[in-house]
Amino acid sequence: MLPPVPHPPRAPALSLRSPRPLPAPSRARASGCSSPLSARRRASPASQLPAKMAENGDGLGTVPEHERILQEIESTDTACVGPTLRSVYDDQPNAHKKFMEKLDACIRNHDKEIEKMCNFHHQGFVDAITELLKVRTDAEKLKVQVTDTNRRFQDAGKEVIVQTEDIIRCRVQQRNITTVVEKLQLCLPVLEMYSKLKEQMSAKRYYSALKTMEQLENVYFPRVSQYRFCQLMIENLPKLREDIKEISMSDLKDFLESIRKHSDKIGETAMKQAQQQKTFNVVLQKQNNVNFVKNVYVNDRIPEERNEVELKREFEEEDENEEEVLTVQDLVDFSPVYRCLHIYSVLGDEETFENYYRKQRKKQARLVLQPQSNMHETVDGYRRYFTQIVGFFVVEDHILHVTQGLVTRAYTDELWNMALSKIIAVLRAHSSYCTDPDLVLELKNLIVIFADTLQGYGFPVNRLFDLLFEIRDQYNETLLKKWAGVFRDIFEEDNYSPIPIVNEEEYKVVISKFPFQDPDLEKQSFPKKFPMSQSVPHIYIQVKEFIYASLKFSESLHRSSTEIDDMLRKSTNLLLTRTLSSCLLNLIRKPHIGLTELVQIIINTTHLEQACKYLEDFITNITNISQETVHTARLYGLSTFKDARHAAEGEIYTKLNQKIDEFVQLADYDWTMSEPDGRASGYLMDLINFLRSIFQVFTHLPGKVAQTACMSACQHLSTSLMQMLLDSELKQISMGAVQQFNLDVIQCELFASSEPVPGFQGDTLQLAFIDLRQLLDLFMVWDWSTYLADYGQPASKYLRVNPNTALILLEKMKDTSKKNNIFAQFRKNDRDKQKLIETVVKQLRSLVNGMSQHT
Hints:
This protein is mainly alpha-helical. Helices cover 74% and strands 0% of the residues. The chain folds into 4 domains: 87-203; 240-287 and 326-459, no CATH class; 478-497 and 533-650, Orthogonal Bundle (Tetracycline Repressor, domain 2); 669-676 and 685-852, Methane Monooxygenase Hydroxylase, Chain G, domain 1. Residues 1-62 are annotated as: Disordered. Keywords: Exocytosis, Transport.
C-alpha cells in the first residue's frame, strides 16, 4: 500500500512588480508599429479602469490618451510597442510621469486580480499535491514490479529474439529466393528462345531463326533489358543476321550454279513432256478419226482392228514414257531460293535480293544463249542448245508462279524477248551452214518441240514459227540439191530405151510406179515395151518422195491443210522448174548424148508432163483437202517439160546438123573434072542412109517434131551444099564438076520426095533444095537469057537464084574455061562462049550493084 502523500507548502502570493521605466528614445526604437494599428487589433484591458483614472485627478484631455496607450501596449505585439511609447514622450512635457503613474496603478490592479485568482484555486492545488504524493509510493512499487517483469521478460525473450532473428533471416532469404525465382522465370524464356535460336542456326533453319529473333526483340528482350546478358544478346543479333544473309546468299549462289548445270536436264525433261503431250493428242485424234470412219469398214474389220491395235500400242508406249519422266521439282531443289527470299523479306532487304537474283540470271541467260561454234554440225548440238534454254525459262516460270515479286511477268517477258531475238539470230546463222536436209528436218522438229514447250509455259513463240518458214525455204534448197544428185544418178543409170516387159507381173510393177494408161499397149501380147525409159518411173517416184520430204517439214507448223497444200505445190514447182529442168537441160547438152537418147528424152518428158495431174491429185490426197478447193499455186510441170522438150528438139536439130556437117566434110569433089562419074558421091549416099535410119527412130516422136527435124536437116544439107559451091577457097569449077554435083542434089531430092517422115504435104520437103535446083538448072541449061529477061518477075523460072550467087559461080567457071582452053581462042565457038560469059558477068554485076544501091 502506498504511503500518504504529504501536503505541499503553500505557495506565496503572486505579485506584479512595476517594470523599470524605459527611456523615451529606447521605447521609441523598440516600437515598429503605429499606435492606431495596435489599437485596431485588440482592445486593451485598461479600458476597464476609467473611474480610477478620474480619481487620480488626471485631466480630461490626458486620461483618454493614456488609457489608449495602455490599451495599445496590452493589446499590441511587443515588437510594435515602440511607436506607442514614443507617443508618450511626444505629446506633453510631463506626460511621462503621468503615464508612469497610470501604468503603476494598472499593474497594482492586475496584481490584485491575480492574487484573488490564486487564492481561489489554492485549495485544489493542495489537494492535487496530496493525491500525487499518495500515488508516488504505488508508482515506485509498480516500477519495481515492472522492472522485475521486464527483466524476466527480457530473459525469456532472448531465445525468442534469436529465433525471431532466424525467422527474419529466413524470411529475407525466402523473399530473395522468391525474387530470384520470379526473375529466373522472366529470364528463362529469353534464354530458352536464344538457345532455340542457336539450335536453329546450327540446323540451318535460318528463316525460323529470323522469326525467333523477331520474337526475342519484340517480346522477350523488353522484359529483361536491364540485365547484362540481354545486352550481350541484343548486340549479337545483328551479327547473326549478317551471318544468315551471307549463308543464304552462299546457298543461292550454289543453287544458281546447280541450275546452270542442270538446265539441259530440266529442258530435256520439259521438252519430253511436251512431246509426249503432243503425241498423245495426235494419237487421240487418230482414234477419233478411226471412230469416225468405222462405218466405212463395216464389211472389212481388218483395217479397224489394225488401227485399234496400233493405237493401243501407242497408248501403252505413252504410259511407259510418262512413268519415266521426272518433274522439274524432282530435278531441282528450289528451297534455297525460297529460303533466301524469305530471309531477305524478313530482313527488309528484299529489293537487294531481287536485283541480285535477276542480275545473275541475266548473266546465265547470256551464257545459255551463246552457242557452240560447231553446233550446226550435229543435231545433238542443237538439242543441247535448246534444252539449256528451255531449262532456263522453265526455272524462271516456276519461280514466277511460286514466289511473289522475285520474278514478275514483265521481267520474264523482257528476258524472253531478248532471248528470242538472240535465238533467232543464232538459228538463222547456224542453219545456213546446214547442207543435209535430214539435219535441217531434225532441226525443224527440235524448234517445233522447243516452241511448243515454251508456249505451254506462256511464252509467245510466233516469231519462231516465222523463222521456221525461213528455214523451210532453206530446207527446200537442201532438198533440191539432194534431189538434183538423185536425178543425175537416175539419168546416168538410164539406158534411154523403152522399158521391156515379158509378163504381167513386170507390167504391174511398172504401172504401180508410174500412172501409165494406154489401151493399145494393154491389148498387145507379151513381150512388149513401154514407150518411156526406166528413168521415167524413177523420177516420178522421186518427185513423190520429195513431196513426202517437204510434207514432213510442213507438219506441226500450226498451219491449215490449204496452206500446207500450197506450200507443197510451191516446193514441187521449184523441184520441177529448177532442179529437174536444170538436170534435163544438162543431160540434153551432154556431148555423149546422141540423137537416139534425145529422142527418148523427148518421149520421157512427154509422159512426165502427162503425169503432172496425178502429182496434183497426190498432193491433194496427202493434205486431205477437197478436190474443189481453189489452189493459189498450180504445178508448173507442163511448162517445165515443154521447155525440156524444146531444148531436146533444138539439141536434136543441132546434133543432126552436126552429123550432116561431119558427112559433108567427107566430100571429096574433083572440081576440075571434065565429065561426071555417072553416080552420086559416096559420102552423100551414106548421109542419106543415116538420115533414113534416124528418121525411122523419129516415128515415136510427135509428128511436128519429126517433120521439123526432117525439114531442118534437109535445109541444113541444102545450105551446106550451097556453101560448098560458094566457098571462097574454091577458085575454079568445071562443068563436069557441076554435073557431078547435080547428081548428088538429085539424090537429095529423091530422098525428100520419098517422105522419110510422114505428114508433109506435096513436095514441101523438096522445097528445101529449090535454091540449089534452080541454080544448077541455070548452069546446066545455060539459060542466061531467060534468067536475065525474067529477073525480078514473080513467075520467073529462076526466081530463087540470087544474082550474086550466080556471079560467084560463073566467075569460077570462067576462070576454069580460061585455064583449060588456052588455045580455044583460035576456035570461033569457044571465043563466042567466052564473050557470052563475059557479057553475062557484066550483066550480073550490074544486077548486084543495083541490088546494093537499092539496099
